[in-house]
Amino acid sequence: MKRLFKYGLYTIILLFLLLFITFPVVVLVTKSISAGWTFPHLFPQFFTLRGWELLKSNPEIVEAIYTTVIIAVSVVMLNIIFALPVAKGISHYHFRGKTVLETIFLLPILVPSLAIAMGLHLTMIRLGLSDKLIGVILIHMLPTLPYSIRMFKAGFDQLGIKWEEQARTIGVKRLRVFWTVTFPMLAPNIRSVALLSYVISLSQYALTAIIGGGVVTTLPMIYYPFFNSADQMVIAAFSIVFAILPILFLMVLEVFMKIYVHIVKR
Asked: What is the pLDDT of residues 214-248, one digit of tens each?
């Protein structure tokens, strides 16, 4: 009887969580293809694809999606390239000033990114990086790199150095040890870093506006002004497009990681 009650309670909690997660999505999808759905009507008066057609007919949105994905993927790759060696150095080596160095890497989290970006804006103007794609990519590293370093450091702390030492004792070169031992074992951390960096970059509005100067147009630059529109179908359709991008990225990332791990195991 007690076990039955326990399973029943788990089932109720699971159903509640499932409803809590799926209900807003169902409402958003329905809102994007319906019109005349207002209180107290329980169901839409009629269905239409007008919201999606308006988005499709807007060339700025297609260009903004392309730009947003290019920036976000570049930010992910740069985070992995720069955060991995820094995190490994902090985790595996002891040196004077290590605590100070860790604090410096955490500053972009402790200090508002907007305040730092305002100062960096003048520097980027002098370097010719303002109002350019590369400038926006670099400024998106500001709120993402500290998290990447922390997550990779946690992975290196858990991994230790014995695996690499064992591989090197049988004559395997350092670079091969990294690609065949360290990198696959850090796969969960790489997934976390990649997804978090992608989502943070995807949602940046203020940093993109400051450094991009309105020349570099990303989805948030178009998305937020859309809220001034009273057309709820367009807003709902735009929100779905915005939400699909991280899901697609996660799917591609999972396929890539599985292929890579499979190749290494061979």
From this structure: 788 888 888 776 666 656 777 778 888 888 888 89
Secondary structure (H, E, C), the chain: CHHHHHHHHHHHHHHHHHHHHHHHHHHHHHHHCEECCCCCCCCCCEECCHHHHHHHCCHHHHHHHHHHHHHHHHHHHHHHHHHHHHHHHHHHCCCCCHHHHHHHHHHHHHCCHHHHHHHHHHHHHHHCCCCCHHHHHHHHHHHHHHHHHHHHHHHHHHHCCHHHHHHHHCCCCHHHHHHHHHHHHCHHHHHHHHHHHHHHHHCCCHHHHHHHCCCCCCHHHHHHHHCCCCCHHHHHHHHHHHHHHHHHHHHHHHHHHHHHHHHHHC
| Residues 201, 199: Cα–Cα separation, whole Å | 5
pTM of the predicted structure, to 2 decimals? 0.82
For the segment 165-185, what is each residue's pLDDT rounded down to a tens digit? 776 777 667 777 777 778 888
26-80: pLDDT as tens digits: 777 777 777 766 666 666 666 777 777 777 777 788 888 889 999 999 999 999 9
Q: Quick check: 81 and 141 in contact, CB under 8 A?
A: no
Report all structural domains of the chain as residue ranges with CATH numbers, in order of start. 2-47 (no CATH), 50-265 (1.10.3720.10)
Amino acid identity of residue 104, one-letter, is I
